[in-house]
Amino acid sequence: MIVFGIITVLVLVSFGLIFLCKSYSLEIKNKYPTVDCNVIKKNYNTRLEEYAFREWDEHYNWEEKTFNIPTPFSGALQCYCDQYAEYGLKGTKMMYHTVKNDAG
């Protein structure tokens, strides 16, 4: 009887961990969807940077803008970041580089 109880607890813990990992994986997948950057770059053309910043701003500053939930990513930010990653710039360094160069 004790062995049955231990196995039952272990199986339940196992299911719980699998559920948590799967939920986190789906959350990340939904936040950063797979996108075709060639299509996005073609559609946004020279305004990719503007749309990428707007996408970032509306996702991370959603409470200031009184949105109910963060705006989901459409792919402009991801393609913009990928474009700059090709030049060796990543994350905040990319934003600093762009802002610094625009400011002069």
Tell me, briefly, the overall form: elongated
Order of helices and strands: HHHHH
Task: Work out the count of structural domains.
Answer: 2
Helix run count: 5
Largest sheet: none
Query: Structural class given helices, strands, pairing?
Result: mainly alpha
Topology:
Layout: H1 2-31, H2 37-44, H3 48-60, H4 76-85, H5 91-103
Short description:
The protein is built from five helices and no strands. The protein has 104 residues and is mostly helical.
Label this structure with key terms:
disordered C terminus; 2 domains; 104 residues; mainly alpha; 0% strand
Protein described:
- With 104 residues, the protein is mostly helical.
- It has two domains: 1-31; 33-104, no CATH class.
- 71% of the residues lie in helices and 0% in strands.
- It has helices at residues 2-31, 37-44, 48-60, 76-85, 91-103.
- Helix 3 packs across helix 4 (76-85).
- The termini are far apart.
